[in-house]
Every structure is written in C-alpha cells, then in structure tokens.
Amino acid sequence: MNTATKPNHIGRKISRIRELRGMKQEALALELGISQQSVSLLEQSETVEDEKLEKVAKILGVTTEAIKNFSDESVLNIISNSFHDNSVLNGVLYNPTFNPIDKILEQADKIEELYKKLLQAEKDKVAYLEKLLDKK
C-alpha cells in the first residue's frame, strides 16, 4: 500500500489512518453501520462521497482535510521530530504540566471528605434508629 503512487487515493488514506489509530475494519464497520466487506471496498475506492468521508473522519477522530492531505511522509516527519524533542522519551511526554504530588494530595482530600460524609451518614442513621427505639 504505497500512497505515493496515487496521492489522492482517499480509500488508502482512510485505511492508513485507521491502522495508525489501531482500529480494525470490523470496528469501523460497526461505527458506520455497514459490513466489514463494505469498509474493505471503501478503502479500495479512489474517491469517497463527502457525506461518508465526514462520518469516517468523525469516527477516526480527524478532519476530512486531514484525510485528504494525509501522507506517510508527513507522519514520519511528525514522529521523527517528536523523538528529537528533549521532553519526549519513547514517545511519552515526561515533563508533565502539573505536579503529580499535588494531584495525589487532591485525591487524598477528596477521599477524606467522602469518608467524613459517610461517617456523618452513619451517625445520622444510628441517631434515627435510637429515636425510633425510644418511642417504643
């Protein structure tokens, strides 16, 4: 599958983007409400009607322009540029824009608040039950 031979072969571009997204033809077919064989035919088509292309683009999480302008060379450029960036290691951003310890402390505070609410609910329940027993 070389998109260089036919640069405007929309079906092949859909196929490559789907593969890069880690999506199988069956999954795309399910989302489109068509058969896997229909997706295969779609990916073999040099042109795709705009309405169907919009649906496919939405499912793949890209724009129709991204599909139309897609090339393997541009993907390789993006990947190679990413690995030359000092904040990327094995494709993972390792300089987060937040302090992980702050996030842990926020979660601890939320857990503590939930625990206090649960404890208060239990105290209220016990008080209500004692009140009921006193009436008898």
Please sum up the structure shown.
By secondary structure, the protein is mainly α. It has helices at 10-20, 25-32, 36-44, 50-60, 64-69, 72-84, 100-135; strands spanning 88-89, 92-93. Helix content is 69%, strand content 3%.
Q: What is the topology, as strand order, of the major beta sheet? A: 1-2
Determine the CATH superfamily of the largest domain.
Answer: lambda repressor-like DNA-binding domains
Uncertain regions spanning at least 5 consecutive residues = 1-5
By CATH reckoning, the class of the largest domain would read Mainly Alpha
Distance between the termini: 83 Å
Query: Percentage of helical residues?
Result: 55-70%
Strand content: under 5%
Report the structural category. Answer: mainly alpha
User: Any idea how many domains?
Assistant: 2
Write down the overall geometry.
elongated
CATH topology of the largest domain: 434 Repressor (Amino-terminal Domain)
Order of helices and strands: HHHHHHEEH
Task: Give me the Rg, rounded.
Answer: 27 Å
Number of helices: 7
CATH architecture of the largest domain: Orthogonal Bundle
Global mean pLDDT:
82
Main pleated sheet: 2 strands, antiparallel
The tally of beta strands, per DSSP, is 2
